[in-house]
Amino acid sequence: APMAVNALYKFSSYLDKVKYAPQVFGKVTGKPRHIYLAGVMFSEIWHFDWAVKMFRQSLERDPFDFECYRQLAYKEGDASAVEEAIQKYSFNYKVMRSAGDYYAEQTDPQLLEKALDCYDKAMAIVPGDLSLAEDKAGVLRKLKRYEEAIRLLKEWLAKYSANDMATLYYKNALAINYLKVQDPKAALEVLTPEVIGSYQGGVMLTAAWAHDALNEQAQAEDLFRKVVERYPTSDGVLEDRIEYLWKHQRDQEAVDLITKARPRHGEKNYWWYFDAVRTELGQAPKERVLKVVDALLAGGAPENEIKGLALQCFQKDHELAYEIMSRMPASNPM
Q: For position 1, what pLDDT does the model report?
């Protein structure tokens, strides 16, 4: 069943998916995971009523499979299934941890508070979980409760710090929160040369931004250069580098980096750098934005990339969005 469902994903045509769905469903057994995959298959062909039925049946056999609750929340349009799981199985670490992850993905502050509650209950069940405190700190950061996040991360490091990757991630998370409270010196006290020497991408980026905040541009540039050389295909690394270049008015260098990365992303994943656009060009003068758009087009940006840029990054400025789309060459209908 897993292989059959994965094969169904390969079809780009909806009609092909419908055609082969009966064969995929024939591979389903009474195993909870197989029934769950049947729900995924029905979702893929837009039979959401049957998808819900499959997810419910899977939960009858394995009530702790949180992915079914997550899918039901998406299909039913509310979090009642997730709330049901929390009420029934608050004693189960897997359920509470996953419920916390579900709410941590939301943007509503009230739902983020629910994530904190779920994480607290999960931490009470398994106090030594290596990533829970970091995830909770991430939610606190989304809520802009930076001092609480700093305190939590420092407490974890005081108890569990070791020469391992978990400690590296916690130190980086702590440094990020120091940057949020405008304390780059404290961030670099955490990210010592020894820590930066781990060459972990996130650590190098955080250290680079800390040096940038201190206007130590030589050190920032050196770190950005090294991290891009080490992780040349990482979208996160490239987007931070692009944001840094745009911040310092180095527009053509940013465009050149996007142009170089474009073939790897293809036409469907054109939006990978748009957060950097929103951050550094969202309030830029119109002339500068249009000059960047012209450079992107000169570098081979396809029509859907420019349309996406206009509609996703400048949707509040209708005039500018229209001007951006007007920069595209007229399509040939023949």
A: 59
Report the C-alpha gap between 119 and 132 in whole angstroms. 7
Six-digit token string for 208: 């680079």
- Give the residues of the chain that fall short of pLDDT 50: none
Buried b (16+ CB within 10 A) or exposed e, 93-107: bebbbbbbbbbbeee
pLDDT digits (tens, 9 = 90+) for 258-294: 999 999 887 778 899 999 999 999 999 999 999 999 9
The percentage of residues in the chain with a pLDDT greater than 70, rounded to a whole number, is 91
| Separation of alpha carbons 257 and 244, rounded Å | 12
Question: Residue 298, exposed/middle/buried by CB under 10 A (0-12, 13-18, 19+)?
Answer: exposed
R_g (Cα) of the chain, nearest Å: 24
pLDDT tens readout for residues 165-176? 999 999 999 999
The 8-class DSSP code of residue 214 comes to: T
Question: Any idea what the Cα angle at residue 49 is, between residues 43 and 52, rounded to 5°?
Answer: 70
Of 197, 206, 219, 205, nearest in space to 176 by CA: 206
- What pLDDT does 9 receive? 55
Task: Record the tokens describing residue 151, joined without a space.
Answer: 């305190």
By three-state DSSP, how is residue 329 classified? coil
Torsion-angle region of 144 (φ positive above 0: left; ψ -120 to 50: alpha; else: beta): left
For the chain, the maximum distance between any two Cα atoms, rounded to a whole number of angstroms, is: 68
